[in-house]
Specification:
By secondary structure, the chain is mainly alpha-helical. The chain has helices at 5-22, 29-46, 50-56, 65-68, 73-91; strands at 98-102, 107-111, 130-131. The chain contains five helices and three strands. The chain has a three-stranded antiparallel sheet. β1 (98-102) and β2 (107-111) form a beta hairpin. The longest helix is centred in the middle third of the chain and has 19 residues, at 73-91.
């Protein structure tokens, strides 16, 4: 079978272009700031630290208002759940971010480690969940 080198090269270049177009877009500085503040809120909720979670709220911009006003860990976790929707979209396909899922609460979140740290159950459920593929 005779191979057409020119056709193979064109096909290879087309596939490379497709792969590059499918890569996640670079995060803006504002997106990086959001994810950093989100990470602080995540860590605080894992530790059942309401004050720490509320402190991260202002750094999340207008999206963090409900977190800042939370009067209980349950309220803070509900607000964090809304923030997680945005965080999952931003972090999707980005290197160094992992989307995790808690099957008991049916909630997703973003973290920077592959070791599960569940913000929805706090200290009692810290290891409940799995990294989504």
């Amino acid at each position: 079978m005779k191979l057409n080198c020119k056709k193979i090269a064109v096909t290879a270049l087309a596939l490379i272009g497709l792969a590059l177009s499918l890569q996640a877009a670079d995060l803006s500085d504002q997106d990086k700031q959001f994810l950093a503040a989100y990470g602080k809120a995540h860590n605080a909720l894992v530790a059942d630290d309401l004050a720490g979670a509320k402190k991260a709220g202002p750094d999340l911009g207008p999206d963090g208002a409900d977190l800042s006003k939370s009067k209980s860990l349950d309220e803070a976790r509900a607000a964090f759940g809304k923030l997680s929707d945005k965080a999952v979209k931003l972090a999707s396909g980005q290197s160094g971010y992992y989307v995790a899922h808690c099957p008991m609460k049916n909630k997703d979140w973003v973290q920077t480690s592959t070791t599960i740290a569940n913000p929805y159950g706090g200290k009692e459920m810290v290891s409940c969940g799995e990294i989504k593929k």
